[in-house]
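User: ATP-dependent DNA helicase RecG. Structure?
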Amino acid sequence: MDAVPALDEPLKKVLGPATAKVMAEHLGLHTVGDLLHHYPRRYEERGQLTHLADLPMDEHVTVVAQVADARLHTFASSRAPRGKGQRLEVTITDGSGRLQLVFFGAGVHKPHKELLPGTRAMFAGKVSVFNRRLQLAHPAYELLRADSEEAVESWAGALIPLYPATAKLESWKIGKAIQTVLPSAQEAADPLPETLREGRGLLPLPEALLKIHRPHTKADIEQARARLKWDEAFVLQVALARRRHADAQLPAVPRRPRPDGILAAFDDRLPFSLTEGQRKVSEEIFADLATDHPMHRLLQGEVGSGKTLVALRAMLAVVDAGGQAAMLAPTEVLAQQHHRSVTEMMGELAEGGMLGGAENATKVVLLTGSMGAAARRQALLDLATGEAGIVIGTHALIEDKVQFHDLGLVVVDEQHRFGVEQRDALRGKGKQPPHLLVMTATPIPRTVAMTVFGDLETSVLDQLPAGRSPIASHVVPAADKPHFLARAWERVREEAGKGHQAYVVCPRIGDEEDGAKAKKSPEDEAEKRPPLAVLDIAEQLARGPLAGLRVEVLHGRMQPDDKDAVMRGFAAGEADVLVATTVIEVGVNVPNATVMVIMDADRFGVSQLHQLRGRVGRGSAPGLCLLVTEMPEASAARQRLNAVASTLDGFELSRIDLEQRREGDVLGQAQSGTRSSLRMLAVIDDEEVIAEAREEATRIVAVDPDLERLPALRTALDALLDEEREQYLEKG
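Assistant: Predicted structure:
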């Protein structure tokens, strides 16, 4: 039987079952290779050698000194009530001054035996003050057997790696385990092709692993990091390049619009001309649709940049070519809204088969989970016969019963709300893979990562259509300046007085079930108050500062028909103020709404705040967004809100968001940033490395898509793409 390669050796065999179990459960480390790739988070210097006469407070220092005396005291304490507590006090001197060391409890035995008067040693620890005297509590120490200057210098200058650790496994224990497996690093297979590595002056992998775990100098750390970042960027780029290469081999039906078809008729009836950006992006999409392999395009556009119009023109091009288009929306409210705006924009072109419908019209159907049985049957029939060219719906579109006559294009709105399986199920409904257009209003972490890494071709809409109004944003510090909050409600009244409308957004609904489930952030714990709730705030406003105005509520647990009725009523101007949860975050379009007040704004992410804010300023009157918070001025939460208030640039905000949240697992489903296949690489800081790695990967995959000439790279790819992630990319 073949021996297991050194890096695939289970940790159980090398470190013993107890340690291996903790590493597997708490750090996800199973093999020697996993442990070698568990890199230090940072490095602690034991400190330059310091004279006792000039010790700095609160800093880590290393001193060389001689023990002057050592005394063991016993004392009574809550843990040792019978006077059995032990404290060892050791006084050391280096000729320039004296310093007290103190050890407690079980920690006294070893130093009591070793630190005898006259012993010379190096001591490292943090300087503190006790009874007006400087001391080191529980310092690390190393006895100096011979008075070797070299030993003193090398020990004091050493860089101590500090590892991402858990309560069950301290950093120094991980360090010891790594010391045990480090010799295996020599056998690490190098995934970078030699020409690439040498051309870029990168270390071989075994040397990089050695230097990251046991650096002698800071230059060692830099060199190792540069190399290991390249590994991550390159292997990931190869995975994505192979995905793009495979997509290019898939068959798809080319869909070209007819010169006198429904698209041309639609363009003729538009009351405005497209922006330069909309025209350019449409051309990119039409070029993709005309090819015989599936389009995979990401359309990023600022809130209100006209993405829906661009998507609708793409859908009409497919209808022209005899196919059907499906638009997938994350919520019923949004699906209904898209259906309304699409049928309004199309007019009689959406009345296919009806009296008064235009001659080249098609049918636009809505399909959601809450539709009545008869309407649903008719919609399903229209899709199966091809009568309906366009369908707009929620994930109800994915159910097995839904059959398409000829699905040519899938448009996914707000891509981050959909699981990959859901997108995949919809794409599986075409006879051949349909073209795919994914839209997002704010690049959110995974999308930014995928955009930088590029598994989809990207189009960006960064101009706002003419007639859009600017939005002013301000932070309202309710705790520091309560009169600012009072002024915020006055502004809402003023806007209502001019005939405009307002949104008030809260993080929580406010019935008991919801309160019990509300997760507490550390900030909640500090404040001891749950997030503000729609039902409570609506009542307080209607009775207090907004008395006399028509206040309505909207949240996710209302019946779909009720939600739709409230939204329609608000859009028709039947309410002045809508108090809502984030159900209004995406796509809700009420041009008459000019103010948004976001309560407990610090409980929302940057992208979410930007999305919410995009609901106002959609008409000709300027928009106002007020971010209400009780967080103190110096807090990170306040700085996040100041960033949102200072710019309307969603791309800039997505960078801030990503910096704060970390990347999440770029390939996996974790988006929180806790589990990441990226250990060294930071999507924001390392854009250059990623861009270069993408070029190299594309070049290599074009020549050798199966990586037959690069077995070590193939192995690294298999390790990165375990089965779950491989499928994830497959479906991407």
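The mean pLDDT is 81. Residues 192 and 208 are 13 Å apart (CA to CA).
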